[in-house]
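Justification of resources, computational component.

The compute hours requested in this renewal are based largely on the per-chain cost of generating structure records like the one below. Each record pairs the submitted sequence with a full structure-token output. That output is archived, and it is also reused by downstream analysis tasks.
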Amino acid sequence: MPRAGSAPPILDFSVFYSNNASAKEKLVADVRNCCRHNGFFQITGHNVPLELQQKIMEWNKRFFDLSLEEKMTVSKDTTNIWNRGYELLHSQILEEGTLPELKEGFYIGDEISKSHPYFVNKKLNSGPNMWPDASIMPNVEDFKSTALDYYSQVVALAKDILKVLALTLDLDEGWFNEFATGAVATMRLLHYPTQPPDSPQKLTRGIGAHTDFGTITLLLQDRVAGLQVYDYATKEWLDVKPTLGAFVVNLGNLMMRWTNDKYISNLHRVINVSGEERYSIPVFFSGNPDFVVECLPNCRKEGEEAKYSPITVEQAVLDGYAYSYGRVEKFKKGAAKSDIVVQASELAVV
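The structure output for this chain reads:
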């Protein structure tokens, strides 16, 4: 069991692929304990090569080194409605009562053609990717192939993690297969400028305190720290230090809902006061957009009502988007300016 006040443990995932039954049982037990404690753990020993991780992180930095004018040629807000492309600084507020967030992003997913049923039916985050022109980013074809290779390998890893999660819930290893078939996942290249020294500490965030909307998230960090996970037992924020080659794995709201709150989708945030630029790459695995998530059969007692009503994957994630991006629109209109300081001082997690 993770100790209260201790950062998410680093687990060797290679035993999942081994024939060592006892080691695999220990991995399952360790993951179960993490899911019950704060929904976070880190893994090494996975199948995503370190060289590929480093290559996509280098492309991440090269993309954000482009000028704002160049990045805006692939803006997700002006070119499409399916969540692909560049997102400006200050586009989101995930923590009520804070300023728009000090991060910029670039969204990538499956290459979904405009003739694909997901695109035709306007399914969650489904459409063609946006790539800079070769005149703006030389060797952009390598950026594209690297990003899509990395994306596909991390999605495959997410499906393996789901198999472990099934075992932690005393389900068959393949229990989530139907949910994972035709799954939607979104990769987000992120850049966090360092927080200005004179910025208001209780209002400025790289990403504000929030829980993820989907099922599981796999995060690749560079060498600059900033990610923090909240520990309810000690009421403190714990630093998740970057570990070479490791993925940070956390459960999202859908998994918490699925398990009737047996597992935790936990608060986390990013505050970059390092004095350096921070880069990271989360892959948000949502699942098949039409799959209906409802309480797992062994996560409530016989005759007990589920805490949540059934919901499709698509609706659950869209609700999360609407909530967080809606805060920015409210802020821009000035509705939050008068009470923002009061709200921030009242936040229990700050």
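The domain at 10-346 is CATH 2.60.120.330 (Jelly Rolls). The longest strand covers residues 278-287.
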